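Proteins fold. Shown next:

***
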Amino acid sequence: MRSFLLALQLLTRIPVKIGGEVQKQEMVRSVTMFPLVGLLVGGAMGLVYYLASPILPGSLPAWLAVLTALLLTGGLHLDGLMDTADGVFGSHTRARALAIMRDSRTGAMGVMACVLDLGIKTTALSSFIGPDIYPVLLLAPAAARTAMVLAMRYPYARQGKGVGSPYAGQVGKGHIMLSVLLTLALSALIMGVQGIIVVMGAWLAAAAIAWWLAKRLGGMTGDAYGFINEIAEVSFLLLALAV
């Protein structure tokens, strides 16, 4: 339960009270609960979509579902997407990319990445017919949070501490395996074989991006995890439409 609360505290804006001092090992163990936090976010998205779809036309229910996720997470992963896009596409050197990513201002690359991300998500969600959307809403955030765990095998890219430093290079194979198995079990339960295929496809896309980012930046950062989360979520939605 404590691991779940720690994951909830990290990945959402839901107020969580955790007693006592949090140890580094506890933070690392909490990654096994990332899929459940994603499932919770997806459940909230599904509820909002269910309530909005009978009364709002067109793509508005999808937009509200995406907005729900942004409000629950405080835009944490979207912010990482924008910062990373600014850094990796707006510079030629590793040092300069990391410096840009630390800058609180958003550049053109970050804005374009944000627009594309939100546009693709809402368009994809609007393309699902009837109740087919609900399993996708549940699983996409869970698969995306697990994709971040898979990327935590890479070392931390910066000197010193940051949001991603307690996890980068610290998460072991056992933690990764538990997170993966939990997500696969949820996928099989909610979407059957199709869910497993879509989840693994999204992870493959995210793994390719993680490898590229690790090579480009010399490792991972908290922003890079947000970038990977968004890539995995978009990939999941597109693959779910295709299969």
Q: What stands out?
A: DSSP finds ten helices and no strands in the chain. The chain has one domain: 2-14+35-242.
